[in-house]
Amino acid sequence: MNEPKYTRERIIQEIAKLAFSDPADAVGLAFLPEGSSIVGLDVSAVTELKVGEKGGSQVKLLDRVELIRLLVELLGAGEDGHTQAESFFRALNGPAGEETP
């Protein structure tokens, strides 16, 4: 039987990736010359791009606060009494490969 394409864990990972993405590529997108390739740029958080006739541009990004709220909600409480969100943030802020108590 085939594994589901989108598991709960994968969805949580993708939301976290969007919530903590670096907006540098999205900002750089606004300054690319017309016809340039965006291959290699992380523009996954871009929801809208407007380029005006006089050269001005506007880039709108996903709402990070809402994404983080959604993550906290999805992570919920774990069996150890800690929320999965607390464990997630401890792991995020701790040294790589180590889980802090």
What is the topological layout?
Elements: H1 8-19, H2 24-29, E1 46-51, E2 57-61, H3 64-75, H4 84-93
Antiparallel strand pairs: 1-2
Helix pairs in contact: 1-3
Describe, in plain words, how this protein is organized in 3D.
It is a single chain. The protein is an alpha+beta fold. The chain has one domain. The protein is built from four helices and two strands; from the N terminus they run ααββαα. The protein has a two-stranded antiparallel sheet. The chain is elongated, with a radius of gyration of 18 Å. The mean pLDDT is 80.
Reading side by side through the largest sheet, how are the strands ordered?
1-2
Number of domains: 1
Distance between the termini: 38 Å
Q: Approximately how much helix is present in the residues?
A: 25-40%
Biggest sheet record? 2 strands, antiparallel
By DSSP (H or I, 4+ residues per run), the number of helices equals 4
Give the strand tally.
2
Shape: elongated
Q: Give the ordered list of helices and strands.
A: HHEEHH
Mean pLDDT: 80
DSSP strand (E) fraction?
A: 5-15%
Structural class: alpha+beta
Observed structural traits:
single chain; 4 helices; alpha+beta; 11% strand
Overview in brief:
By secondary structure, this protein is an alpha+beta fold.
